[in-house]
Amino acid sequence: MLRRTIASLKSSISLHITEEASIHNAYHCRTFTTQSPLHLREKDRICPKHIDSVITFVLGGPGSGKGTQCAKIVETFGFKHLSAGDLLRKEIVSDSEYGSMILDTIREGKIVPSEVTVKLILRELESGDNHKFLIDGFPRSEENRIAFEHITGSEPNFVLFFDCPEEEMVKRVLSRNQGRIDDNIDTIKKRLKVFESLNLPVIDYYAKKGKLHRINAVGTEDEIFEQVRPVFAACEKKATIT
Ligand SMILES: Nc1ncnc2c1ncn2[C@@H]1O[C@H](COP(=O)(O)OP(=O)(O)O)[C@@H](O)[C@H]1O
Ligand SMILES: Nc1ccn([C@@H]2O[C@H](COP(=O)(O)OP(=O)(O)O)[C@@H](O)[C@H]2O)c(=O)n1
Ligand SMILES: [Mg+2]
């Protein structure tokens, strides 16, 4: 099914998804018509495998501590961690057709086209048996968000936002020491601008939908996790009750 999904995505997703039949091969079940912000008349579909999934988006500026807190959530609550940035970096070294485009985009602090990123995320959602996912660093733009919703037919159960002052983010990124091509002051400045102009609207969108959990990202890693823990504990409790 995964191969079919990827094949159909390759041919159909330039944000003008018209090949309903090919997507329908991979996604059947509930369908209804929606009018999207991109004015696409779409069938919203839910992948059978995702019906019972818990999907959490983890947002925040560069260096706000998303990856660090995701590791703690994985350890404590057994989620599978999908970092959009890591998936894109793996794609660069895997000789993929998109590698050089992704490298250039990351070096410039810009956002990789949604069809590429969503495809990589979908591949991970489809693999393995875990049904609880943390999708870290995604969606980073309204285009990312809309593409995910259209392609998977799903929305996140909830969204974490690590709210961190810029100075602190810059300090953390500059001392991250992971050899990343985008962890330099020039690219960080660009990433912060992109965060403000493209990612904040997504955060606002989920706040308005009542799905956003804002976390104060200043403090020790453990202090921050104590704000994160109740969000997931409540989610576990709800799953036990229902
Ligand atoms: N609460 C914290 N206080 C200080 N440094 C932190 C904290 N959380 C993470 N870091 C460090 O900041 C850097 C960026 O964290 P990371 O989790 O990679 O952020 P993001 O994924 O949001 O870019 C890393 O070097 C990490 O060890
Ligand atoms: N949804 C995404 C996520 C990351 N990216 C790219 O990957 C880079 C690194 O993302 P990341 O999530 O690993 O970065 P951090 O916020 O963890 O520092 C971003 O600056 C973008 O260039 C993207 O294009 N689209
Ligand atoms: Mg990260």
UniProtKB/TrEMBL annotation:
| Cytoplasm in keyword set | yes
Indicate which residues the UniProt annotation says bind a ribonucleoside 5'-phosphate.
89, 110-112, 137-140, 180, 191
Q: Which reaction does it catalyse?
A: UMP + ATP = UDP + ADP; dCMP + ATP = dCDP + ADP; CMP + ATP = CDP + ADP
Q: Which gene encodes it?
A: LOC101502164
Chain sites annotated for binding CMP: 144
Q: Which GO terms describe its cellular component?
A: cytoplasm; nucleus
Know the name of this protein?
A: UMP-CMP kinase
Q: Where is the signal peptide?
A: none
Role noted for this protein: Catalyzes the phosphorylation of pyrimidine nucleoside monophosphates at the expense of ATP. Plays an important role in de novo pyrimidine nucleotide biosynthesis. Has preference for UMP and CMP as phosphate acceptors.
Native organism is Cicer arietinum (Chickpea)
Q: Which SUPFAM superfamilies match?
A: P-loop containing nucleoside triphosphate hydrolases
Annotated GO molecular function terms are: ATP binding; CMP kinase activity; dCMP kinase activity; UMP kinase activity
Q: Which Pfam families does the record associate with it?
A: ADK
Needed cofactors: Mg(2+)
- Note accompanying the cofactor annotation: Binds 1 Mg(2+) ion per monomer.
What compartments host this protein?
A: Cytoplasm; Nucleus
Q: Which GO terms describe its biological process?
A: 'de novo' pyrimidine nucleobase biosynthetic process; pyrimidine nucleotide biosynthetic process
Which Gene3D superfamilies has this protein been placed in? P-loop containing nucleotide triphosphate hydrolases
Q: Where does ATP bind?
A: 63-68, 176, 219
How does the record describe its quaternary structure?
Monomer.
Q: Would you identify the family this protein belongs to, as annotated?
A: Belongs to the adenylate kinase family. UMP-CMP kinase subfamily.
Give the comment on domains: Consists of three domains, a large central CORE domain and two small peripheral domains, NMPbind and LID, which undergo movements during catalysis. The LID domain closes over the site of phosphoryl transfer upon ATP binding. Assembling and dissambling the active center during each catalytic cycle provides an effective means to prevent ATP hydrolysis.
**Which keywords does this Swiss-Prot/TrEMBL entry list?**
ATP-binding, Cytoplasm, Kinase, Nucleotide-binding, Nucleus, Pyrimidine biosynthesis, Transferase
- Identify the NCBIfam families for this entry: UMP_CMP_kin_fam
Q: Does the keyword Transcription apply?
A: no
Q: Which EC numbers does the record give? A: 2.7.4.14
